[in-house]
Amino acid sequence: MQEHDTRPAEPLPPGAAASAPGGDAAAAANDVADTDERLRRAESEAAELKDAWLRARAETENVRRQAADSVAKASKFAIERFAEDLLPVKDALEQALAVDATPDQLRAGVELTLRQLAAVFARAQIAEVDPKGEKFDPHRHQAMQVVPSDQPANTVVDVVQKGYLLNERVLRPAMVTVAKSPEA
Predict the structure, then answer these.
(1) How confident is the model over 155-169, as pLDDT tens digits?
(2) What are phi and psi for residue 24, nearest 5 degrees?
(3) 103-123 vs 80-98: helix axis angle to the nearest 10?
C-alpha cells in the first residue's frame, strides 16, 4: 500500500514560478496581477461611491433643514402682509378720534375707513357671507332661531350677523333666522 502525503502544500513565495497543471507559470502570475488590479479598482470605486453617498446624505439633510426653516418662517410671518394692509385702517380710525368733527364728517370718515377695510379684505381674499333669501346651509350659516314665514322652509329670512369666508373656507358662519315650514 502506498501512503499519500496529506499535509497542505506550502504557498509559493511571491514571484516564484510554479508550473500550473495544464498552464504556464507566467499566465498564473498575470492572473494574480490582474486580480490584484481589479481588487484595487473595486476598492477605489467603493470608496468613491461611499463618498458620493455621504455627500448626498448630507445634502439631503441640509435641504430638509432648510425646508423646515422656510416652513417655520412662512408660518411665523404669514399674516405680515395682511397686518401691513390694516395699518392705514387703524391710522384712519385714530385720526377720526383725534379731531372734533360734525356727525356728517364722522359718518364720511367711517364710510371711507370701511371702504379701506373692504379693500384690505378683498386683497386677503376674505369674503362676506350675507345669505338673506338663500337656502339655509349648515356649513356656512348658524341658525339662531326658526320662525314662521311666507318664504319656503329652510330659507334664510334675516341675517343677525354676517359671516366671512377666507379662500372659500368659513372663518365665521353667518348667524341667521330661518323660515320653518307652515305645518310645523
Answers:
(1) 999 999 999 999 999
(2) -115, 145
(3) 180
